[in-house]
Amino acid sequence: MPHQHPVIIERHEIGALRSLRLLAPEIAIAAQPGQYVLAACKPPTSYDPMLRRAIFVAGANPHAGTIDLLVQPDDRGNAWLCEQLVGVRLDLLGPQGRPFKLDPRTRNLLLAGTGTALPALLFLAQRAAAKGIAGVLFAAAADSAYLPPAFLLPPEFEYQSSADGPASLMDMLAVPSIGHSLFNTPIAWADQICFALSEDLLASTAAAVRNGRMRWERGFAFVVVDGRMPCGIGICQSCLITTHKGLRTRCKDGPVFDLRELAS
Amino acid sequence: MNIDLVPNNPYKLTITTPIIAAAGSLGYGMEVARHMGLAAQPATHGLGALITRSTSLRQHRARPLPGIVETPAGLLYRGIDHNPGLKVIRERFAPIWATWNLPVIVSLWGQDYTEIAEAAAQLEGVEGVSGIEIPLSNNNAITTDTASRLVLAVRMATALPLLVKLPGQASDVPGLARAVVEQGADAIALIDGIPAVAPLPDGTLVEGRLCGPAVAPVALGLVATVSDEVNVPIIGVGGVRTAADVRAMFAAGANVVGIASGLLADLRIAAHILEDLQVHVW
User: Fold this and answer.
1) How distant is the Cα of B31 from the closest Cα of chain A, in angstroms?
2) Contacts of residue B242 in chain A, CB cutoff 8 Å?
3) Residue A58 is part of which domain span?
4) Cβ–Cβ of B264/A51 closer than 8 Å?
5) A180 in the same domain as A89
6) Residue A190 forms part of a structural domain
7) Is residue A236 domain-resident?
8) Phi/psi of residue A245, each to 5°?
């Protein structure tokens, strides 16, 4: 969990999102899909008490020593980050958090997400494709400007998106194609599923998985849970989430959980 | 540089820098121990001591659950009474604290004086626990009478170094300071977060304790007032972020400075402040 001061080497505006590529060799080597960095989103000399923002890593290239962030300007901290230009040095702490675990037997990987943790699935798709895994990514947002572009995905992954709101993700997941059986859904097709969700979508997602599978074992469905993580390192206890093992912090004990641990 | 934080107590509570982590600012320290080098020699984190999250005799689940709301000049803390209970402290955390390079002081919270006194007694002789702090706000003891009874009960229960944290919103803070020192407080910390209300992103108003730069002038004023009233060490807490803030606290009469919300934003803040202060001067 070291402090780093990487420089922005590329910056692109993609709809309402900002894609930042940072020269951060140590983070690039250490980062795993599902992890985040804690970014100081204010000038170094500012006395603003604003806390660091948890930004999910959207990609990492250990050989080039770069990481990618896909930032949505949804609050004043992230808005500041989105305004930073090439050449600016950021103050990052990380990578932090428990990452996704890909089952070595997985061949068909289903990714589905919405919100600020969605970039973690882009990173996961890259790592999965490098292992010869093919898959599909479903993404949903309230506005198409907040959807990641298809070119950020490896060619091994299909991409479908919806701008009808986060809840539309459930429709994309659970509905079989016309003329096919109820078990011909994306959930039934997948060997493993990795979600990026807010807490309010967990119950409906778990229900969709339950409906789509005859059996649902541990390790089949993981979820990275987004939402504010004020300290990001487990000291403030302000990102508690109810699991089958009791209350856990999203930052230290997550942000990736087995969906079975969260499902009611 | 060594500072004896409790010169009137038979136990020693020596700190090596005049900056401490105020109650709960680093939780119980476990999550940051490796990163901050709390067990490494020499220490580079800049902290003289760590005060834990407020802890009760038994595990307590806060309602509402803990949360932090950013305000324009501070942080509003909610659910500050959420904690794992004293058994976890004694059996899991304290043995690890005993290996660290700074003393750990346990902040105590309870439903009534008896419970707090019992918790204090249970910490007596526990290796790794260097003292206790009683925050008056959390313990509903913000009048002279209630504060006196609480501190006396704790003092009777343990000889451990006893810090008492004063609330900024009390009507007679100097009177509170005199009363708790009379009942055996070894040092005084002030101020605690001030009760306040802030909106969540959805517009819902929530109650909590305001900390950070917003309360700094209030803290400074009360430190100046209280330091004239008592002859025990004063820990100034409230919005400290820079060496200039620390100097102002010292000028107001604080012997030691506590950092709370500043550590949440930057774990290196104490080390940076010490560099700026050129600590050898102290």
Assistant:
1) 6
2) 47
3) 3-96
4) yes
5) no
6) yes
7) yes
8) -95, 10
The mean predicted confidence, pLDDT, of chain B is: 92
Q: Which residue has the higher pLDDT, B82 or B115?
A: B115
**Residue B56's CATH number:** 3.20.20.70
Backbone Cα Rg of chain B: 17
Instruction: Tell me which chain B residue has its CA closest to the CA of residue A248.
Output: B65
Domain count within chain A: 2
Spell out which residues of chain A touch residue B244, defining contact as CB-CB under 8 Å: none
| Contact status of A151 with chain B (Cβ, < 8 Å) | no
Last residue of a domain, one of A96, A125, A151: A96
Q: Give ipTM to 2 decimals.
A: 0.85
Give yes or no for a contact between B192 and B243, defined as CB atoms under 8 angstroms apart. no
Range of the domain at B252: 3-281
Say how far apart CA B261 and CA B62 lie, in whole Å: 20
Domain count, chain B: 1
A vs B, Cβ pairs < 8 A, gives 65
Determine, for residues A235 and B264 on separate chains, whether the beta-carbon distance falls below 8 Å: yes
Q: Could you give the strand order of the β-sheet that contains A53-61, starting from the edge strand earlier in sequence?
A: A3-4, A92-96, A36-39, A53-61, A66-71, A17-23, A7-14
pLDDT given at position B280: 46
User: Where residue A249 sits, what CATH number does that domain have?
Assistant: 3.40.50.80
Residue A101 lies in a domain: no
* Matching residue, tokens 């007679």: B172
